[in-house]
Amino acid sequence: MRALLVVNPKATTTSERSRDVLVRALRSEVDLTVEYTRRRGHAVSLAREAAEAGIDLVVTLGGDGTVNEAVNGLMTSVPPTVDLAQPPAERLPALAVVPGGSTNVFARALGLPREWAEGTSMILEGLRVGRFRTIGLGRADERYFTFCAGFGLDAAVIREVERARLRGRVSTPALYLRSAVSHYFVGMNRRHPAIRLERPDEPDEVELATVIIQNTAPWTYLGSRPVNPNPDASFDLGLDVMGLRQLHVPSTTRTVTQILSGSPNPRGRQVLRLHDVAEFTLVASRPQAFQLDGDYLGERQKVRFTSVSHALRVIC
Q1: Alpha-carbon distance 170 to 148, whole Å?
Q2: pTM of the predicted protein model
Q3: Which of 93, 112, 252, 279 could form a disulfide with 306 if both were Cys (CB 3.0 to 4.6 A apart)?
């Protein structure tokens, strides 16, 4: 089996020594090529080139951003032997994810351990016995995502956290919480919800203040605590959506409490919940912050979302 290991050298929970251990372990099982990312978006081209060269397996060592880029490279590739009648999962290289970031939502959603060494052991066992699962992905316009997207408040919080990290701050749950509270009270227009959700053959959902989209559960983690706006979301189904119509302090506090509870089930007059949705479009009357898989992508006023079933085989 020919494999490519895509390494983010800035991965927060690994060192050069641990990377060497991983490389030796993988080389005991596969014919391995190792590539290091050098810039944002580099993993996209590395994974795409690997697929087009007929590689059997792409392994990532990094956080959710590295995984997202590799997935987009795979999904936009044209492998050398293509039967377009087959679903993508049957014509693309398989994917294996070694957790190396600070949160690793995708890896944890697959049931992988948080520590890279334990995750590597599980992946090696999966390779030996041929254990994998086929998952669906989400797509926002032309870009794919593995576990979540956000339009509005949560994306704006990610933007503020990324700015803080550029100033030397460390990404922690406390930083996210402080950024969320600050932006909620100071940085956004809460009085005039700007987002409309459109679905084929369904009435529009209007005057939404913020929208969270999930391809699996949980949406993210605060340390070891899962955060679950859409607890029924699944890699095996369409997309799940939670929108808030208003961001009044009492209703928002109640919704956040419901999301963080041991049995999350957000509900109420201000909450919109949609389960297993194949496609929809978000349209905003003014630009909204936009994120995919925890990566801030700027502001948008319109994004079309679709669910892509049987998209990838994942070693787990």
Answers
A1: 22
A2: 0.92
A3: 279
C-alpha 63/C-alpha 114 separation (Å) is 11
Q: Is the peptide bond before 218 cis (omega within 30 degrees of 0)?
A: yes
CA pair distance 256, 251, nearest whole angstrom = 9
- The answer to whether 60 and 6 are in contact (CB under 8 A) is yes
d(CA 302, CA 158): 19
Contacts of 93 (CB under 8 A, 6+ apart): 4, 50, 51, 55, 56, 57, 58, 74, 79
Quote the pLDDT of residue 203: 96
The one-letter code for the residue type at 13 is T
Counting Cβ atoms within 10 Å, is residue 83 exposed (0-12), middle (13-18) or buried (19+)?
Answer: exposed
- Written as six digits, the tokens of 159 are 């933007």
- How many Cα atoms sit within 13 Å of 256 on the Cβ side? 14
Q: What are phi and psi of 79, to 5 degrees?
A: -60, 160
| pLDDT computed for residue 66 by the predictor | 96
Q: Say if CB 49 and CB 70 are below 8 A apart.
A: no
pLDDT average, residue stretch 143-154: 97
With b for 16 or more beta-carbon neighbours within 10 A and e for fewer, the 139-150 pattern comes to: bbeebbbbbbbb
Which residue would you say has higher pLDDT here, 134 or 83? 134
Residue 83 in this model has a pLDDT that exceeds 90: no
Instruction: Of 155, 137, 163, 184, give the one whose Cα is nearest residue 291.
Output: 155
At 106-140, the pLDDT tens digits run 999 999 888 878 888 898 999 999 899 999 999 99
